[in-house]
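hi! just following up on the protien thing from before. the input was this:
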Amino acid sequence: MTASPRQLPYAPTPYSYLPNSALTATINLDEEVKLSATAAERDLYDSLAEIYSIIITLDGLEKAYVRDSVPESEYTEMCSRLLNQSKSILRDETVARVFVDLETFKKEWNMECPRATERLRVNLPATIAEPFTTHAGTSSNTPQTRSSATGSQILLATENFITFLDALRLNMLSKDSLHPLLSEVIQSVNQVTTVDFESRGKIISWLIRLNGMKATEELGEEEARQLAFDMEGAYAGFKATLN
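and the predicted 3d structure came back as:
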């Protein structure tokens, strides 16, 4: 009886190869694996990790707020801090270039986080963007001018409207010029009234539009004229709530 040929322990190849122990890579399981070769790379990865953490945390905070698990004041403070941290990190041009935009970053890291996505898009806490909405997330039937609003608060809101309109007249059309001023407008207005007055929604829409622009990007002439028109209407609507 003829013995069957011995089966090779590996798939045969057309070339004869003997590994050279001097050239064979070795792995030390106790050695730390470095993800970055330079300090700049390490800072970049740290910044991207912080953004990832902010998105996850913000999404959880939004869920807690909707479920009444966090007081409005605490939510506003925490949300504002997270949004400011995100903006601060993305001011770094290297980080911003790798980040690209929110949707690209989410896709790259397989993230969903719909509530955080919306909050980052608006770039304002829900208590500021939608003060006429109750904590549970339903619209209030009787929004009113705050009886506790002082003359100084009304004056501040009025001054912020005027300052913003003056900035437009002075042709200050970049995001980094207009977005902070418009944020001050809506925040000071909310200290006076929670009424959803005429064109108030336009303030939020323009905040979202500006938030989506690059820091040095400027509005076009037609956009600037439309923004001025909308803000004049919002200013008139705000003054109507004081009567």
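The chain is about 60% helix and 0% strand.
The longest helix spans residues 39-66.
cheers
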